[in-house]
Amino acid sequence: MKNLLLSLLLTIAAVGIHAQDRQAVDQKAVPDVSLTIKDLAGRSQSPFKLETQTASVIFFIQQDCPISNRYAPEIARIVQDYQSKPIRFFLVYVDATVSAKEIEQHGQEFSLPGVPVIQDSKHQLVAAVGASVTPEVAVVGKSGEIVYRGRIDNLYQALGKPRRVVTERELRDALEAILQNRKVVITRTATIGCYISAQN
User: Fold this and answer.
1) How many CB atoms lie within 10 A of CB 97?
2) What does the pLDDT look like over 26-49, one tens digit per residue?
3) pLDDT per position as a tens digit, 125-150
4) Are strands 55-61 and 87-93 parallel, antiparallel or unpaired?
5) Distance CA 52, CA 88 (A)
6) Are the C-beta atoms of residues 79 and 39 closer than 8 Å to each other?
């Protein structure tokens, strides 16, 4: 009986923690649309401010994360498939210690698409959307709200355990819904990858 009661209390506590985490995520669902950050070319970028576009897609990546690098071909395919649509794409490197030259070399080595590249040294974008893992993606809607955040697809079922066949493509589903003026059904998913280290 005591074990059953203890199990019940732990379950209630876990649900409470989960609810708090979800609330924290929801509080970050509408970032400051005026946030502007320089890309590696020195141009000012405002990922959360849409003008003629329908959405912005922000890929958070790390040059030394094997899972992030494994997704490079799919990131390139997604950009290619939607480049003619009113959607902007950004590659955001979260490691403050990597140099601009190393980022450029990494992009060439893994054939990453030629979209604006941002080194988020101070984790402004990371904090704005609540990203915690790479590769994680955030999709920004017309009003600057985060309409989807999480994994690109379900290639990984656990760390070191990729699936043979991808069966769920949440990012593509979100983009299709936006382009068809439909509500994004799945707005949050857990991401498997490398944790983003906190900045000092």
Assistant:
1) 8
2) 434 678 888 999 999 999 999 999
3) 999 999 999 999 999 998 899 999 99
4) parallel
5) 10
6) no
